[in-house]
Design goal:
Length: 370
């Protein structure tokens, strides 16, 4: 093996060990490295597997989940850890070593995707809370990049009995939607038969559960799926006991999050008859329309949560505000901030300092202006 490969592997091993040590609240220095094609000796194999075992002990992740992250079969990982794998293990060991190196490098980078309590995020959290408390159906309408998905995830993290699914394009029929909801809300699902039986089990399980179901990207749901959600909400609330005052419905809430396309669909005159009942349910709940632009205070909250290693110049704050209110919204702004942070790291200057207009455009074009 060339000396250069040995040196890179040594640095890589040192960084992986340092990262795992940091999981146990120890923070030694870490070095950068990259992988190349290698053949593992018995000693090297043992060292990689020991690092993986320490990683699993530190994070508490089970073997099955780690195997999925690494990209190998759970049975192969189990055999490797128990010295029972008889095949050529170099490919699997390389995948493990690369996975650990990625985790170490990710730990060194600032987390720019953390939840920040911006103005729109506060509105979303309040909307979810009110529909959760009162057991109503509600809407969160906003363009892409307003932080809906992140805010939904944060509400689910803060509150118990909250379930999130996505109205992805492949969820095109009520049965598919019912299966998706059941897989998320029912831990011991038994029904594998007809759609009617599955729906009945779902209604029985969530009646009286005081749960909130959040459906992100609901603008992608079909007409029949939206009608199914209305029927589900009706059946669950009708089958449960009355909660609190006589006029208060049973506490099972649904929040639909999507773009203005969802609102237009519900309010379209051509679909007036089809969605009349659904509109009645939704507008009896709590709706949030994210129409206002991000402010400088929102940008400062995002940056404060990001724990950047390099400070931002005033011009950089202005740039981020413009990006957040631009075509690609908050996601585009955070993505550009990640690239600008990497540029600042390479230049070792504050973010935004000594960056020409051309360099800023290069950052936006997913290149590093080093």
């Amino acid at each position: 093996m060339p000396n250069g490969d040995l040196a890179r592997r040594a640095r890589m091993s040192a960084r992986t060990n340092a990262y795992i040590d940091s999981l146990f609240n120890r923070f030694p220095d870490r070095a950068e490295s990259r992988m190349s094609e290698i053949v593992y000796t018995d000693e090297q194999k043992q060292k990689v597997l020991q690092q993986l075992e320490r990683f699993m002990n530190a994070t508490g992740l089970p073997q099955s989940k780690v195997a999925r992250f690494v990209g190998i079969q759970a049975s192969q990982l189990s055999q490797l850890l128990n010295s029972g794998y008889s095949g050529d293990s170099d490919k699997q060991l390389k995948a493990i070593e690369q996975f650990l190196d990625r985790q170490a490098e990710a730990a060194e980078a600032p987390n720019l995707r953390k939840f920040a309590e911006t103005g729109p995020a506060q509105i979303i959290l309040k909307c979810c809370r009110q529909n959760h408390i009162h057991g109503t159906m509600g809407l969160v309408i906003g363009s892409s990049g307003k932080g809906k998905t992140t805010a939904f995830a944060e509400y689910a993290r803060r509150e118990s009995n909250v379930y999130r699914i996505s109205g992805a394009q492949w969820v095109t029929t009520p049965r598919q939607l019912c299966l998706t909801i059941a897989d998320r809300m029912i831990n011991d699902r038994h029904t594998r038969g007809s759609f009617q039986d599955l729906a009945a089990e779902l209604i029985d399980k969530i009646s009286g559960s005081n749960a909130l179901l959040i459906i992100d990207q609901a603008h992608q749901l079909s007409e029949r799926c939206l009608e199914f959600l209305q029927n589900l909400w009706d059946q669950v609330n009708e089958s449960g006991e009355m909660a609190g005052d006589e006029g208060r419905r049973k506490k099972f809430g649904i929040v639909l999050g999507g773009t203005a396309r969802l609102r237009m669909t519900l309010e379209n005159e051509k679909s007036n008859y089809l969605y009349e009942q659904l509109r009645g349910r939704i507008y009896g709940g709590f709706t949030a329309v994210l129409s206002r632009a991000f402010t400088m205070e929102d940008v400062k909250a995002i940056v404060a949560n990001a724990e950047l290693k390099y400070p931002l110049t005033p011009d950089a704050f202005t740039w981020l505000l413009r990006e957040a209110n631009g075509k690609h919204g908050l996601n585009g702004a955070v993505g550009n901030l990640e690239k600008a942070e990497e540029t600042a790291r390479l230049k070792r200057v504050p973010i935004g300092q000594n960056l020409s207009d051309r360099e800023l455009e290069a950052v936006k074009a997913f290149t590093l202006a080093a």
